[in-house]
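1st attempt posting a full record on here, be nice pls
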Amino acid sequence: MLRRIFVFLHRWVGLFMAGFLIVVGLTGSILAFYNELDRLVTPQLYAFRQDKPKLDLATLAERAEALLPPTARLVSVRLQAPDQAIATVKPRDSARAHSNEAPLGFDQLFFDPWTGVELGRRMRGDLSQGVINLMPFIYLLHDSLTVHGVGTLALGVIATFWTIDCFVGFYLTLPVSRTGFLRNWRRAWLVKWRAGAFRINFDLHRAGGLWLWLILFVFAWSSVMFNLRPVYESVMHAILKYDSIIDAVMSSPRRVVEKPKLDWRAAQEAGDRIMADEARKQGFAVRWPRGITYAPKVGMYAYVVATDRDIAEQSGATMTMFDGDTGERRAFTGPYGANAGVTVGEWLMALHTGRVFGFPYRIFVMIVGLAVTMLSATGVYIWWKKRLARKLSKKNMRQNGRSKPRWNLMAGHFQGAARTRENGGCRPRLQQGDTASPSQSLVHTNDIATH
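the predicted structure (as tokens):
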């Protein structure tokens, strides 16, 4: 009975996820090379490397604010790449209240990190501005279906189902009978290339999910981390020691402060002071600042640095949040190794984004993205072919005047003790009218007999 329930869930949850997973699989395979492709498409947004120190974040923030109209406010400044600094801007709340104010037309400013010269600007993801937004559009499609808020939540829910389905699908690949368990399960890892199209699709769906199970689980759970953070943190709290930025921020006094007392330079000095203090306590070294952000809805600055413990390339997750008026420390997330939760989170982020193990791993990430697309497409194909076969079978029975067979809606196959006994106590061989699990994202039922 349990297996029948899992088959039912695997089928319909898989069909529900299929379209979403095809989108994120295809876009993810492209995003494995985001920096290279963005540099190819928009070389004007990247600076020529120079043999001199880069400007600090506060100086870049001051350059950005000097370029903004009164209706806009600076949100953050970060070093996106070694040769690129990005300032993110938004309309001020007061400007939003007046509909007669002209729209900004951009939400990103690009700077040479050595000279502070503006390199360009764009409204992130707006394809009407041309090819300059091609890669940001693909990123937003992958991250939130280009619909911030609703799209992010939807993909977070999909990622949660995907994570659960990893284990359901794996269970369904296990042989029903314990007799010759390993011998029978070994066949689930193989593709019978000389068989017909249906059998090849089924084998690709099942074997592909088995061979890639671990990395698919990593991608599914890390997607929950990115898109449905409360669920991720609840689970991590239950199984690991985990420092939550969300908990720290939510436990602090909530106050909206659009213009803090600390300007960008004072904020950077406060961030440097907190980081230096934590580095002495925890024994890590700060390599360089990565970014600084101000969040007016909580009245806090966030300051991110790269450290000597980071595993992700060109990235850093060590962060502190502090009061925008007093500089008082409110929250801190340590570097790799600070605790088990931080370590797992760093690995999930690095593996998902391809920022570890160099160029070969990014090629692997691209292949995994295409594999997710393949697993989803073959799952839909399997379900569709079986649906057609069931319709044809019922039509033939009506034409021949035969009674309707006993059909198990949850298990998706004909019931018959005699057929089971004829196959040595195992599930029957798959015939044209039978169905197996049409799972979308991973691995599948053992309803196809092993040959």
